[in-house]
Amino acid sequence: MEEQILLNLDNPGQLERLYRTDKPTFKRAFKALYPELKDKSLAGFWNERLNFGSEEISFGTNRELLFILLACFVAGVIAKLPAILSVSEDFFYPRNIGFIGFPVVSAYFAWKNKLSAAQIGLMAGATLAAAVFINFLPDVKESDTLVLSCIHLALFLWAILGLAFVGKERSDVEKRLGYLRYNGDLIVMTALILISGAIMTAVTINLFGLIGLKIEEFYFQYVGIFGLSSAPIVGTYLTQTNPQLVGKVSPVIARIFSPLVLVMLLIYLSAIVYSGKDPYNDREFLLIFNVLLIGVMAIIFFSVAETSKKAKSQPEIWVLFLLSVVTVIVNGIALSAILFRIAEWGITPNRAAVLGSNVLILINMLLVTARLYWVISKKSDLAGVGRAMAFYLPVYVVWTIIVTFIFPLIFGFK
């Protein structure tokens, strides 16, 4: 759509035709292009038109609605497979939880972006191979490699979804940042859907309870599981057809939480010294430390992705820079603790996975911190930080593939 807009920018009639053919896609594409087209009078007119007043809620075309309804049904059926096939839930869900949502959402973006048969076949083949691999791993009780493989499999499916999202422009930095923005918007929208669903569930169960009908088991077994499976799919659909719904909420959340997280981290690091706790001898503490690290890094990435094309005030940039510096310090502490534990007790699948992840995160955060420093020094702009993030994403994908598919073989399914 972006290419068609650029080609027909001097042809008002053709632009109008494109807009009426697919209004939501036109709005998203034009919004992404507008920073480059501000000097053109026709672009200014379209910007005012698309952003005038409060936009109506769009539910897309009938074909899109039908596709989403079918996708929700497929996701619900996948979630019900343990009951349909008489498979143990303890076996099925840890291995296959990612297949409930990721493949159908990937199919949606592949359809929307009109990917070629070869691209769709490649993604479908990778998804099928992953499903076969994870379900044929030995069912070893308390297997670290199995747990690691299941966790990283979800990240692998997330990477495939990213390929479907960016479409044919896989090396496009803005598309990759758009994928990060989509993830942030999806979290906000899915949370709202789940909260609304929880309220509706409580009201429905209590209303039926008032007339003496206990529907809890039936409701959760069918309505509940189909609703949970459908939430990210419906959330995706709403964010793509109505980008205005959360387009202004997500940046505000990022702007509010960035300084709060910075203050919390500084207080937390001081409290660690006071409490006497350390990640070197406390395994659970080290685990929490790493979860904290990933969460803070995600906030930084989301904040930069949301505003990579917009001007930010100097205090906001300083907050991101200081947050990155503190994250590097936290990462350094976690990395030294992992190396200490490996030196003392040897290598294990968990320690190897955490070591590799922390090294990759440290390198990435050092690059982001350096870029943010250049922004503060007026040697670069915030878009350079976004580029550094976008170019590094494939490195995480490679590591995810290694942990998911190679670790079980290297460590003998231990």
TrEMBL record:
Parts of the chain that traverse the membrane: 65-85, 91-110, 117-134, 146-166, 186-213, 219-240, 252-273, 285-305, 317-340, 352-376, 388-411
Keywords: Membrane, Transmembrane, Transmembrane helix
Stated name of the protein: DUF4153 domain-containing protein
Domain of life: Bacteria
